[in-house]
Amino acid sequence: MFYDHHFIRMHSVWWIVVTLIILFIVFNTLPYRSYNSREDPLDILKKRFARGEIEKEDY
Asked: Where are the transmembrane segments (predicted)?
């Protein structure tokens, strides 16, 4: 009675929906890390100068 093809197809659709929701939540809560982005040394100097870590003479 409950094992006809409509029930099985709908059951699999719900598992796909639940899996997509779980994946969405997991990937949105993990911190994003960019391993390929290296900072230019000049950018590092500009940031340090802006924070006041180095003086104008050092820059």
From this structure: 12-30
CA–CA dist 37, 29 (Å, integer): 21
Task: For residue 18, give the 3-state DSSP assignment.
Answer: helix
pTM of the model: 0.43
What DSSP state is assigned to residue 58?
T
Specify the length of the chain in residues.
Answer: 59
Residue 6 to residue 28: CA distance in whole angstroms: 33
pLDDT tens, residue by residue, 3-33: 556 666 677 888 899 999 999 998 888 777 6
